[in-house]
Write a structure and sequence with these properties.
With 316 residues, the protein is α/β, with parallel strands linked by helices. The protein has 13 helices and eleven strands. The strands form three sheets. The chain has a seven-stranded mixed β-sheet. A two-stranded antiparallel sheet has the order 6-7. α1 packs antiparallel against α2 and α3 (47-59) runs antiparallel to α4 (63-76). It is elongated, with a radius of gyration of 22 Å. The termini are far apart. Bound molecules: S-adenosylmethionine. Pfam families: Methyltransf_23.
Length: 316
């Protein structure tokens, strides 16, 4: 479970919550919900407890009680570090959430940071940085004088990119992920920043990358608009998204998938004219390949090679 440490601060409530967890481990969801409810009678302001109660009710197929418990968690912690709002939204026939609560992503990755690479690379066969580097190479990318890695995490994308850029920056919303990235010593700049709140500055980048990040961002209009206004002439954006059917789809995994049409529409509206899409498998989720696609886009022809006579070779 995502959130603050799983303790209410009330010893008896904690014991009841532990007992509820034991019942849940045996799939006795109704009993788990009942015992958890009794724990919350002792600790009614325990947001993480309400979130957990919602999960028990959900597993017990009591959607209404689950939503009530999740709403209570949000009432107590309006930043919604547990992602309770996403759970409520997933209950709707047509989800309406368009982005993740920042506090949820931050908490999720702060907790995940120490085991992120072992899990993603070691167990889930993550390919994001390789896929992006390959797609960039295919359109003729050779080097960037300045590149920014959006949602840089622990720096896996940065490691793949470092040798091919003179200056490399990284933004992430999770301080713990940033700490891991900093340890690698490969970034010239790292900053804690919510990508949904990026503002255009005087800085211009030859390359803007986002590997396996837009699945947490959801609606892409703002971040792609920012990228369009932050690229140097002939600059490129390169990113991955999970492939979906609907324009923007919130999945049970609490990650977003995007359709090809939606992504192309957002890019074209922002002024990108030269766009390549490459199908890929980004990683595994519960043993199943996650189908995705990688995008490289530019406003000018994707060029960067010169032929023997010094003429430009247009790659796309
Ligand atoms: C699956 S990890 C990928 C990390 C890295 N790009 C890589 O390829 O290993 C997603 C990262 O995006 C960050 N992230 C998600 N939503 C964000 C947001 N709105 N603003 C900033 N960072 C965000 C998370 O904190 C996390 O580090």
């Amino acid at each position: 479970m995502v959130g603050t440490p799983f303790s209410s601060g009330h010893p008896l409530a904690d014991r009841r919550a532990d007992f509820a967890a034991t019942m849940a481990a045996g799939a006795a969801w109704v009993d788990a919900a009942e015992v958890m409810s009794s724990a919350l009678e002792l600790a009614p302001d325990w947001a993480a407890g309400w979130y957990q109660l919602g999960d028990y009710f959900e597993s017990a197929c009591d959607a209404e009680a689950a939503a009530t418990a999740w709403r209570k968690a949000i009432e107590l912690e309006p930043g919604d570090p547990f992602g309770a709002g996403l759970k409520i939204d997933l209950q709707r026939a047509v989800p309406v959430v368009e982005t993740m609560p920042t506090a949820f992503v931050e908490t999720l990755f702060d907790q995940y940071a120490p085991r992120f690479e072992a899990s993603l690379v070691g167990k889930l066969d993550y390919t994001g940085p390789d896929v992006i580097m390959r797609a960039l190479t295919e359109v003729g990318f050779e080097r960037a004088s300045s590149a920014i890695d959006l949602g840089c995490g622990t720096g896996l994308m940065g490691e793949a990119l470092r040798e091919r850029c003179d200056w490399l920056g990284g933004y992430d919303v999770s301080q713990e992920m940033l700490k891991q990235a900093a340890r690698k010593g490969i970034y010239d700049f790292l900053g804690k920043q919510d990508l949904c709140a990026l503002e255009v500055s005087d800085l211009r980048y030859d390359l803007i990358v986002a590997a396996d990040v837009f699945i947490y961002v959801g609606a892409l209009e703002r971040v792609i608009g920012w990228a369009a206004n932050s690229l140097a002439p002939r600059g490129q954006v390169a990113f991955t998204v999970e492939r979906g059917e609907a324009p923007l789809e919130l999945r049970e995994s609490r990650r977003f998938a995007h359709s090809e049409e939606y992504v192309l529409g957002v890019l074209r509206n922002a002024g990108f004219k030269y766009i390549t899409l490459t199908d890929c498998v980004l990683r595994k989720d519960r043993g199943v390949d996650v189908k995705a696609f990688c995008v490289v886009a530019s406003m000018e022809p994707l060029v960067s090679r010169f032929d023997r006579d010094g003429g430009e070779v247009v790659a796309a």
